[in-house]
Amino acid sequence: xxxxxxxxxxxxxxxxxxxxxxxxxxxxxxxxxxxxxxxxxxxxxxxxxxxxxxxxxxxxxxxxxxxxxxxxxxxxxxxxxxxxxxxxxxxxxxxxxxxxxxxxxxxxxxxxxxxxxxxxxxxxxxxxxxxxxxxxxxxxxxxxxxxxxxxxxxxxxxxxxxxxxxxxxxxxxxxxxxxxxxxxxxxxxxxxxxxxxxxxxxxxxxxxxxxxxxxxxxxxxxxxxxxxxxxxxxxxxxxxxxxxxxxxxxxxxxxxxxxxxxxxxxxxxxxxxxxxxxxxxxxxxxxxxxxxxxxxxxxxxxxxxxx
Length: 307
Prior knowledge:
Blueprint: E1 16-23, E2 28-36, H1 59-77, H2 89-95, H3 99-104, H4 110-115, H5 119-130, H6 137-150, H7 155-169, H8 173-185, H9 190-217, E3 220-222, H10 228-248, H11 265-277, E4 278-280, H12 288-292
Antiparallel strand pairs: 1-2, 3-4
Helix pairs in contact: 5-9, 6-7, 7-10, 7-11, 9-10, 10-11
């Protein structure tokens, strides 16, 4: 038996091929199963060889990458179960009940133990705290203060400025990124699920009255079957997604909104959503361009954060 050395020709990408490697422990070539070879041209930027048995298209290269990714995923997500008594192992490593108190904070371990007799309780509450909706309260208050001035101009300008402020605030690593990482890594961990429910309820309580007020200000009504809480989810999802992409590409913008040289992509998406979800109070349907240029038609409503 020979080790896997050949690289596939382009027509063979997508085919399942065997992987054989030499094991120093066994002093023999071993069968390591199969791998579906992909075209990794341009993906691996730091590999020492561009072709051949040590290049990106080699079955062994792709076996090493696949196993490395699998091991990393397993290490990051291990032990996250529906059992309240078990927690992701990485939490114990990073913020262990005793080690975090004594080695990181340099305080007595009793400071934690008095408050959380069980380590599982400490981890659960730490997750709940990290995902608490109150962490957005300051940004919400600042945003609502600016919103009052924006509501005197075209709807497109209001939405662009609103989305821009939301996307910019999402760049705070402690405010958003930690929460996103936790939810991505441990979606089945009960405290994560509970915190998400609390967060979604908070979003509706805070923003539904504000969005309803904006619609009224511009003489718009949601169509039958469209709920304001669903609109809240859509708006938040769009700005959060753009926030993720802007970390990679800070120049991510669009020039497709009339009268606005550059605007967040999420602002354009929100306008398109509103074009399909709203009518004017007199029953007319407006496309997103008409919506973007629409001026206020009613007195400004009070906009205050929810409880």
